[in-house]
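Predict the holo structure. Ligand: adenosine-5'-triphosphate.
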Amino acid sequence: MIQLYIPLNFLGVIYREIKQSLTDLDKMFVLMEKEREVRDGADAKPLAQPDGTVHFEDVSFAYEPDRPILQHVSFEIPAGKTVAVVGPSGSGKSTLARLLYRFYDVQDGRITIGGEDIRTVTQASLRQAIGIVPQDTVLFNDTIEYNIAYGRPGATREQVEAAAQAARIHGFIAATPKGYATTVGERGLKLSGGEKQRVAIARTLLKNPPIVIFDEATSALDSANERAIQAELKSAAQNKTTLVIAHRLSTVVDAHEILVLESGVVVERGTHVDLLARQGRYAQMWTLQKVEAAPVVL
Ligand code: ATP
């Protein structure tokens, strides 16, 4: 009986390993599939001015031919400034981020950085220039150190720790028995949404790119955590050309410009103060969020 039990148990382990590897492979193929949407042109050159102004010029885009997602979207993020995009779910906010990172190419109009059309530059140089803090960070089944250092291959432990400190995840890591050698991801320690976002912020801080994209999580964090994450995002965005896809209006108050997107069309734009004064869609959203966030008075 014991003899039979051991091989069966062993087979179970192998089965789980293979199943897990397949899950990882699935993820990799999904990522590769996205990579394959665009290719470098034969004469693609490295991005000359990664710290230049980001410009969306009359951009239109559809994932499927007869379902337009973005229509004639134009805006500029001057170097070092922040533009925030707000709007209902499905209005195309994250699509703007995917286009800037060039997961897809625009079908009309163009996106330029420092005046250069991003379709004419190498993808490697474009992605080197951009750091993304996505809604849901994918962690590798590897150590927490590897997961943070992924932002800058070859980073030293000191640099990784400094980034983790700044993203306020160091204390959490230090409290685990294996510290930075702790395996995270599906096969290791599972992190909460807020912790994963902090890992992504640490990665971005370490990468130190001139352009940063924040795709704010839709899932609600508790309010103390949310305020802390917002403070960390703010410090990570300091002096960087930043595109914020915001679900909470408190994130956008200081933005250079706020775009209100509805069904892929910019329906309002301006600073927080401008938009409140206009008493339109943004002002409505603001009032609604304030009411939702207000404590219940008994
Ligand atoms: P949310 O606030 O919920 O994150 P969003 O404003 O960021 O939404 P997008 O993710 O940009 O919206 O999606 C815009 C529209 O494009 C949605 O209707 C979505 O279903 C569709 N869409 C997104 N990705 C794809 C895809 N890969 N293929 C086809 N349609 C897609």
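Residues 63-64, 69, 87, 89-95, 218 surround adenosine-5'-triphosphate (CB under 6 Å). The mean pLDDT is 85.
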